[in-house]
Design a protein that fits this description.
Strand 1 and strand 2 form a beta hairpin. The strands form three sheets. An eight-stranded mixed sheet has the order 5-4-3-6-7-9-8-10, sandwiched between helices. Strands 1-2 form a two-stranded antiparallel ribbon. A two-stranded antiparallel ribbon has the order 11-12. Helix content is about 25%, strand content about 30%. The chain is an alpha/beta fold and about 240 residues long. Helix 1 runs parallel beside helix 2.
Length: about 240
């Protein structure tokens, strides 16, 4: 009998029924899009560990630490890591990012952070808590993360399009400059919904900016979306 709650990619499978967030488009976009270079990578709010697994596949030199405050997520990520071809380069920890004292400078800190900063004040479900700014915000990721990077290190995240400029300004105040930005919308006539952002801690960057449309018609990915995610999705 097939095990429930498994998302199968081309090179690995990922359980995602016990963690705080199920695998979604945002995580796969970010894991496919980000510059994966670096020896030491930190995945913050890892959930089931899908972004960490994607980066392990893309970068054979990377040692990746994945942290989350939700114990079932950490347990599930650890199981996914153990079953992957890159188990010796992946580590899952139950740890609060805001309290971390790293023993190395990270070349990349990456996160699919919560993105609700208003509305629910007392989340009643794990999913609501995982998506609420009270547990981990894009701004706290920048303010804490900028002091945890190696020279030339980077911070990458996916955020709501209408918050992107706020986060870019906050990063600038912390000495981080925008390297890349890709705005994402579902179809050609839709509004932009998400922004993929990558920041660096070295000055002088001229940001690369572009956009991505996910579907040319319902259920039909654009060529750009297929190209971006072709190493992962089974049907791309």
């Amino acid at each position: 009998m097939a095990e429930r709650g498994i998302f199968r990619f081309k090179a690995f499978a990922c359980r995602h029924y016990g963690s705080s967030m199920r695998i979604g488009v945002d995580a796969v976009l970010l894991g496919s899009w980000v510059d994966s270079r670096g020896s030491h990578i930190l995945d913050v709010g890892t959930g089931c560990g899908v972004i960490a697994l994607m980066l392990a596949q893309r970068n054979p030199e990377a040692h990746i630490t994945a942290v989350d405050i939700h114990r079932p997520s950490v347990d599930e990520a650890a199981r996914n890591f153990a079953d992957s071809p890159w188990h010796d380069r992946l580590e899952a920890r139950e740890e609060d990012f805001s309290m971390m004292q790293p023993d190395c400078g990270y070349d990349l800190i990456i996160s699919n952070p919560p993105y609700f900063n208003a509305g629910i004040r007392s989340p009643h479900t794990v999913r609501e808590s995982a998506r609420h700014d009270g547990s981990l915000s894009p701004l706290s990721l920048i303010s804490k993360g900028c002091g945890m990077l190696s020279p030339g290190g980077r911070i990458a995240m996916v955020v709501p399009y209408d918050r992107a400029q706020e986060i870019i300004c906050a990063a600038s105040e912390c000495g981080m400059s925008l390297i890349r930005r890709t705005d994402v919308k579902g179809n050609p006539s839709a509004r932009f919904k998400r922004s993929l952002l990558e920041f660096g801690n070295e000055v002088g960057h001229t940001p690369m900016t572009d956009s991505l449309v996910l579907e040319e018609s319902p259920g039909v990915p654009t060529d750009e979306h297929r190209t971006l995610c072709r190493d992962f999705y089974l049907y791309y």
